User: What shape does this take?
Amino acid sequence: MELERIIDILFNLLPAGIVAAVAYYFFKQHIENEAGRRRFLLQKERQKESFPLRLQAYERMTLFLERITPSKLLTRVNPTSSNKDDYESLLVANIEQEFEHNLSQQIYISDDCWTVIIAAKNATIQLIRKANMNEKTDSANKLREVVLTELMDTSAPSNAALAFIKKEVAEMW
Assistant: This one.
């Protein structure tokens, strides 16, 4: 008799247990949905605030790459003497100064983009140093000529980085 009574109680509690389980499941889903919605809204708000900063960082790095393009750099930075080594040092120092001025922009751009920008900077410096070591180079003006001649055959290292930046900015929209 006792076993029948326990079974009756269990049958009477079974619908309440099912309702409680379903209610728990739905409340849990609702709470997770609300948390996800709040996270999305916060992220959207942060993105709204950070988007102009990111875009400005890409603009500044584009300007940096344009300024270190050898043809523009050689036009902007005139030699102070005819010594080719002094001119090489002046060009490299100018590139490094431009880079250091924009160093903080790495916070706002992707790691891949930053790596490409550093590679372009280093390749530009290598191009200038390689031209300085050339046998034909005997003066600052000849250094300019050798670098510009080298660029006729190949594109400037900053062109690849500029293309990468343009691609990344296009993906932001």
Observations:
- The two ends are 74 Å apart (CA to CA).
- Residues 2-68 form the longest helix (67 residues).
